[in-house]
Amino acid sequence: MSAFSLFSLVILLHAHFTSSVRLLMQTPASTRWSSMKNTTEPSRTEPCRTGNPTDDCWRCDPDWETNRKMLADCAIGFGRNAIGGRDGEFYVVTDANDDPKNPSPGTLRHAVIQYEPLWIIFDHDMVINLKEELIMNSYKTIDGRGSYIELSHGPCITIQNVTNIIIHGIYIHDCVPAGNAIVRDRPDHYGPRSISDGDGISIFAGRDIWVDHCTLANCKDGLIDAVYGSTAITISNNYMFHHNEVMLLGHNDDFLADKKMQVTIAFNYFGEGLVQRMPRCRHGYFHIVNNVYTGWKMYAIGGSANPTINSQGNVFIAADDISTKEVTKRENPLGYDDWKAWNWRSDGDLMLNGAFFKPSGQDSPGSYARASSMVARPASLLTDIIPSAGILNCKIGQQC
User: Fold this and answer.
1) Catalytic residues
2) How many CB atoms lie within 10 A of CB 36?
3) What local confidence, expressed as pLDDT, does residue 384 receive?
4) d(CA 371, CA 368)
5) What are phi and psi of 299, to 5 degrees?
């Protein structure tokens, strides 16, 4: 790519993303990754296809509302086996109220605590202000398509010691700590909860988790945190903005069970006002693939305790501040003599406006086998097509 093309790309992306963020802060929806047109004419038979494997799997279907559960077959990456509530009934949320101890039928809390698999949808737009953290049971899908669903100004979602969860199409913001309260986590059980952290989505010892096409911002702690031996997770197509510590993946440096952690972070847009942890990793294996980063105030990708980080096909656009050009940050008291052996690589990433990634460890493909979960698209794809991240404006009877 010529110097002129790179400069033009930076200007186009910056101008478009800035306007998208302003719009999103007023009416959260999807944000486009590029204002440029496709370099070739789209197919007449499948004009909606973009090269994003998740979206291409279901968004071309004008009957998506009838075929909602098809989404469960579209996951990518390490969380690709998450089926959520695919094998259960639909549960329609009709009531935005919340009673943490005795939730009423028709509320979101009543839906997520049930034992059986459920595909949870909403019958109208809702702003849900939870009074305590929403503790989910296994085999659940929260599907916000077709309605505007917002969780805000209260504690948010907790995925603890459960499996097979899909969260799609929810706007999550301004989540705060709560606790020292009685909360129901099963139809036949409630008990005391200690103080929660204030995460948007907290994954604790969870497995087979997929978070897709959500918009997240401005929570008290992390936007999405996964700790305590959680694994088989995909975080894809999300739009994140205005937050400090975005994603923590790994409990602490001494918690060795996180060595089995495998997380895919794909096709996300890291937008305006983000500071650090996109993500911050401990132990484990992390595939960071085909994301767009539009500036960070400290660093984009960081870690400690020797995680394996496989960064492929991303677009990193550094801010103008000369002190924040580096993508990476390692936290290690022994310094370079220790972290020089950590396997961190940048493979096919596009570095713009002075961004740079500091690699370390081995360069052989075999060293990244456990941190490889899907085929990376060329970073140029993210500038040649017009994919979307964040919640989608899906209308019944139309392609989403």
Assistant:
1) 277
2) 15
3) 64
4) 5
5) -155, 165
Within 8 A by CB and 6+ apart from 227, the residues are 203, 204, 248, 249, 250, 251, 255, 258
pLDDT per residue over 15-47, tens digit each? 434 333 333 434 344 544 443 222 233 333 456
Which single residue is written with the structure tokens 């199409």? 169
pTM of the model: 0.91
> Which tokens go with 368?
């990244």
| pLDDT over 60 (residue 244) | yes
Kindly list the distances between the CA atom of residue 391 and the CA atoms of 29, 54, 63, 164, 301, in Å, as whole numbers in the listed order.
5, 14, 18, 21, 24
Domain 3-389 adopts which CATH fold?
A: Pectate Lyase C-like (2.160.20)
290: alpha, beta or left? (left if phi > 0; alpha if psi -120 to 50): left
For residue 158, give the 3-state DSSP assignment.
strand
Measure the N-to-C terminal CA separation of the chain; round to a whole number of Å.
33
pLDDT computed for residue 47 by the predictor = 60
Give the separation between CA 313 and CA 346, rounded to whole angstroms: 8
Question: Would the CA dihedral through 155, 76, 388, 47 be positive or negative?
Answer: negative
Strand partners, 270: 240, 293
Three-class secondary structure assignment of 29-86: CCEECCCCCCCCCCCCCCCCCCCCHHHHHHCCCCCCCCCHHHHHHCCCHHHCCCCCCC
**What DSSP string describes 213-282?**
S-EEE--SS-SEEEESS-EEEEEES-EEESEEE-EEESS-TT-GGGGG-EEEEES-EE-TTEEE-SSEEE
Structure confidence by residue, pLDDT tens digits, 74-130: 999 999 999 999 999 999 999 999 999 999 999 999 999 999 999 999 999 999 999
Phi, psi of 332 (to 5 degrees): -155, 125
